[in-house]
Specification:
The chain is built from 5 helices and 2 strands. It is mainly alpha-helical and about 110 residues long. A two-stranded parallel sheet has the order 1-2. The longest helix is centred in the middle third of the chain and has 19 residues.
């Protein structure tokens, strides 16, 4: 238990907010870490190698598959994850018409707590 308190203290110190908008984010993050006793951050990286025939798909099909991939990952980890970090480069790789839309859809799917 002492180790966890020390880790919490270190993280809390490192994450000292510098503005009021950051303040609510960091408070929420610290609350989540405390609630689930975890600092796990899940990277949401719909890598082409994870999606069958990725480069043979249309941009819209890649978007659908990438969103499905991320949703499955979120569904599988939401009880244990303190945060999620989508990697913008993988969404840009989807294409100019659907990449940012897919990223926004993924962000909306992430649980608010």
């Amino acid at each position: 238990r002492t180790r966890r308190k020390t880790s919490y203290f270190k993280i809390r110190t490192m994450m000292a907010p510098s503005s009021s908008s950051n303040s609510s984010f960091f408070k929420k993050l610290l609350q989540r870490c405390t609630e689930i006793n975890s600092y796990l951050c899940i990277g949401l990286d719909p890598h082409p190698s994870e999606i069958e025939n990725y480069y043979e798909l249309s941009e819209e099909e890649r978007s659908v598959k990438a969103l499905e991939f991320c949703k499955q990952l979120i569904d599988a980890t939401h009880l244990h994850a303190a945060a999620y970090k989508p990697n913008g480069a993988f969404f840009e790789n989807i294409g100019v018409n659907f990449g940012s839309k897919t990223l926004l859809s993924v962000m909306k799917y992430v649980p608010s707590n």
